[in-house]
Input
Amino acid sequence: MKAEDSGRRLATRLVSVLVLARAILAGAEVEAAPRSRPDPPGTATEVRVGMFVIDVASIDDASQTYKADILATVRWRDPRLAFVAAPGGDDVRVFPLTEVWQPDLLIVNRREATRAYPDQVRVAPDGTVLYRQRFLFTLASPLELRQFPFDRQTLWIRVASLYGSDEVTLVPEAGDTGRRPQFSVAGWSVALGEMTADTVERTAGERLPRLSLSLTATRDTRYYFWKLFVPLGLIVFMAWTVFFLDHAQLGPRIGVSTASIFSLIAFQLSLGRVLPPISYLTRADQFVLGCSVLVFLALAETILTSKLNAAGRQELSRRIDRIARPAYALLFLVVAAITLS
Output
């Protein structure tokens, strides 16, 4: 019995020693993953950033945002994490991102972001740290819509570090930057621009390093040609038909003019839901406004000639109709040429 009790006590002590050893080793690993900047004061830490655009899913004119699927790659060197790889062992160590120093990057124009992978870094034997993450972003990007729908937009992905520019230097990594051949966004063609490095002012006297990747999006105008310009042209020429109706048919003449006006109002409301409340006129607005003026002119001409006809001046009213037919068509061509060319 005494020998059995001695064996149990020995086993208990061995377990305690093993637990203590694991705790010590765990503490050593935490210490081996420092959270302070790896370079001394006065020397900026170089951080290389690459962004591969997997997809652009949508561009929202009204909210001036777009959705993008991006694979971000970040590299820097921390000599304190260097190690000697054991023969036949792993040549990479993995740490949670929160347990090592990292350059505190943020997407400046982010509205929403979803991560696809765990936040981990992989450390090579020479201390090179690799962080790779796939993000599903909703990004803000102000749009210049004066040429809508013949516009070309620049969409930005802006990355900054919360460290000052004297502490961290952001460098574009061309090898990790690119795009897939096809994007799923409808109604646009998107081209990849260049990634540039600069600094942005945070407070007086403090500047943060920043990287900016541009995407050039060109709108496909065919949708708006068939959904906007052709129907508006038909409405204008529907109003044009009043010049060919007999003056005795006042009801049909007024009915055609008012129907054209209501149709234009519906178009303006639908266009207002597509675009944000901007203070300037787009080319589409100019076309709609020009068509609205023409339709109201047709209504005014109808009322004028009807009054002249009722006053017994039929010849003058017919002469006005004959002049209005080519003049109205010519004015429409002028409006189309000014706004669409």
